[in-house]
Each structure stands twice: as C-alpha cells, then as structure tokens.
Amino acid sequence: MTPSRPYLIRAINEWILDNSLTPYLLVDATAPGVMVPQQHVENGKIVLNINPHAVRDLIIGNAEVTFRARFSGTGMDVVAPIGAVLAIYAQENGRGMMFTEDENEPEPPGAPEPPSGKSSRPALKVVK
C-alpha cells in the first residue's frame, strides 16, 4: 500500500488555502535529500511558507515537495522528501496535521494485524 502522507499533505494544503490561510510546512532539515537554506534552520528543523504568493512551481508529489522561493533576496530551489515533512499547518491558527517519523515505513511482510483490523502504526496527530 502506498504511504498516505503525500495525499494528506496535499489535502490539508488545499483545505488551508480554501480557508484563505497560509500553509506552513515543518521540515526535518537533517533528513537525507533535504535542500533548504541552512541559515534559516533552527534545531535541525525549518518552517517553510508554501503559500502560492510566496513560492513558485510548488509540486507536492508522492516522493517529495519541491518549489522555488526567495530567502533573504536570493532565489533557491527547495526540496523536501515526503518523509522529512513533519507537519503542515495554517500559520494564522496552527490548525493542521503533524506526522510521526515512522509513518512512511511500510509494515513488514507477514506482520500480524491487531485484533481490531487496524494498523499498529501510531495515528496522525492533529495540531490544535
């Protein structure tokens, strides 16, 4: 089964924009494949404004989020693998969704299903 994280990021982004709010991504800047301006990284994480007025060529794909933006007046191509996206939320009120680090990991083959028929994976957490 394909990971749900990219689908949820796209849906929450659309919901935030439909409500005239500003979508922010919280990204683990230390994850492999992340390309972000290091001068804006704090404690290994970076918050990125992905509002259409702030970025160009935004693509929220199944493998990564990519866009072009200006940081301190300098243009940069930003790449965040989907597994590095820790949260998407509205800047104005904090509503959105956080992700746990291991959600992109598939269940091992032959892993037993819990009695309820639900995955033993941790659930996504809603911010505020």
Structure description:
- This protein is mainly beta.
- It is 11% helix and 35% strand.
- The protein has a single domain (5-100), classed as SspB-like (SH3 type barrels).
- It is built from 1 helix and 8 strands.
- A 5-stranded antiparallel beta sheet has the order 2-1-6-7-8, with helices on one face. A 3-stranded antiparallel beta sheet has the order 3-4-5, with helices on one face.
- The longest helix is centred in the first third of the chain and has 14 residues, at 5-18.
Percent range of helical residues: 10-25%
How far from one another are the termini? 29 Å
Under the CATH scheme, which architecture would be assigned? Roll
Low-confidence regions: 104-125
Would you identify the CATH H-level superfamily? SspB-like
- Tell me the structural class: mainly beta
Query: Proportion of β residues?
Result: 35-45%
Task: Count up the helices.
Answer: 1
Count of distinct structural domains: 1
Overall average pLDDT: 86
Bulk shape: globular
Q: What is the string of helix and strand elements?
A: HEEEEEEEE
The number of E-state strands comes to 8
Biggest pleated sheet: 5 strands, antiparallel
Largest sheet strand order = 2-1-6-7-8
Radius of gyration: 16 Å
User: What is the fold-level CATH name, i.e. the topology?
Assistant: SH3 type barrels
CATH class reads Mainly Beta
